[in-house]
Design brief:
Chains A, B: Belongs to the PhoU family. The structure is a homodimer of 240-residue chains. Chain A has 240 residues and is mostly helical. Chain A has six helices and no strands. Chain A has a single domain, classed as Up-down Bundle (Methane Monooxygenase Hydroxylase, Chain G, domain 1).
Chain lengths: 240, 240
Amino acid sequence: MNNGKHIASAFDRDLEGIQALIMKMGGLVEANIKDASIALEERDVELAERVRKADKIIDALDVQINEEAARLIALRSPTAGDLRTVLSVMKISTNLERCGDYAKNLAKRTGVLAEMSPIDGAGASLRRMAREVEDMLRLALDAYMQRDAVLAETVRHRDVDVDQMYNGLFREFLTFMMEDPRNISACMHLHFIAKNIERMGDHATSVAEQVIYLVTGEMPDEARPKGDVTSRTHIGVEDD
Amino acid sequence: MNNGKHIASAFDRDLEGIQALIMKMGGLVEANIKDASIALEERDVELAERVRKADKIIDALDVQINEEAARLIALRSPTAGDLRTVLSVMKISTNLERCGDYAKNLAKRTGVLAEMSPIDGAGASLRRMAREVEDMLRLALDAYMQRDAVLAETVRHRDVDVDQMYNGLFREFLTFMMEDPRNISACMHLHFIAKNIERMGDHATSVAEQVIYLVTGEMPDEARPKGDVTSRTHIGVEDD
C-alpha cells in the first residue's frame, strides 16, 4: 500500500500480491457461506457437495498466503508497522480458513438433514443468520482494503445481532425437540449448524479487529459485545 | 535452542524466553482443562469460577507471546528455519488460547448444569474425554520441547480416540433426550461440552502438527485421521 511516505518498494509490491490473494480467498469464503446456507434451505445435496469441493481451494489459498507472507518477512526484513501488517494478513487468512471449514461442515450436515423430515422454518431462519454473517465478512474485508477502522467497528456490533439470532434459534429448536422426540435428531444437527454460523460471525469479527489493530496500533480495548447467553440459559420443564 | 551449529546468539536467547512462556501457558491450559472437567463432574461451581478467572492469565500470555515474537522478528530479522520457528510458536500460542477458551466455556456451562437434574454418568464420561485431551496436550508440548516428530505423530492418532469417545457420548445423550423431554435442556449443554472437548483435541493435534512442521519442514501429508462421524449420523425413530 503506497501511503505517500515512500515510493512503492519491493515490499509494497509483494504485500499487494498477498492482499490480492486475501481478497480472492474472502470472496470464495463468502460464496461458500451463501451456497452452503442456500443448499441447507433448499435441501440441495448437489450444491452442498460443490461447497465441500470449493473448500479445498480455500484451504490451498490459506497455505499459499502463509508461505508467501513468511517469504516476504524473510526476504524484506520488515520492521514495526510493515511487520504488523504481514502478521495481520496471516491471522486474517486463518480466520477466513476457519469460516470456510464451518461452511463445509454446514454442507456435510445438509446431506444428512435432506433425508430427515424438515423442521418448519428452520432452513429459512438459518439462511437469514448466514446472510448476516456474509455481510459482516464482506464489510470486514472492505474495511481491510480501505484501512477503515470505523467500518470495522460496525462489524463488531453486528456480531451482537448474530448472537441474538442464535439465542432465538436455540430456543426455537428446543421447542421442536420437546414437542416430538422424532424431531430430536434433525434438531441436533440444526443446533450445531446454528452454532457454526455464530462461530463464523466471531471469525468475521476477528478480521474486523485485525483491521482496527492495523489502523490504530492497538487491539480494541473494550470487551467484545456478547449477545450469546445460551451457555447460561436454563430452559426446561424443571423451571415451571 | 542451541543446535551445535552456532554459538548461542541473541536470537537463541530471545527465543528461549518465548518458549518458556509457551510452556508456562501450556501448563496453565492443561490445569484449566482438568479443573473445568472436575468441576463439571462434581458440580463444583466455585472451581468453575476459578477456571474462568485463570483464563484471563492464559489470554494475557497469548498477547505477550505474540508481541515478543513480533519484536524478535523485527529486531533479529531471522531467515528460513529460525523464522519458521518463531511463526510456529505464534500458531501454537493461538491453539493454546483456543483450548483455554473452550475450558472456560465448559466452566460456564457447569454453573447452569449444577442447577438441573444430573444425567447419569455424563460427568464421568466427559471427565474421561477431557483427561485424554489433557494427555494429548502434554505430549504435544513435550514433543515441541524435544523437537520430537515421532512423539508428535502419536498425538495425531490419539485424536481418533477422542473423536470416537465423542461419537459415543453423542449417541448416549440422544437416548437420554428421547427418554424424557425434561432431560433435553441438560443434554444440550452436555452435547456442546462434548463438542468443545473434541475441539480441544483438534487444537492439541494442531500443536503436534506444528512440531512435525518444525522438525521436518513440511506439514504432515496424509489427511488427519478423522474419527468424528456424527455430522453424517442418522439417528432417530425415522430410521426404524
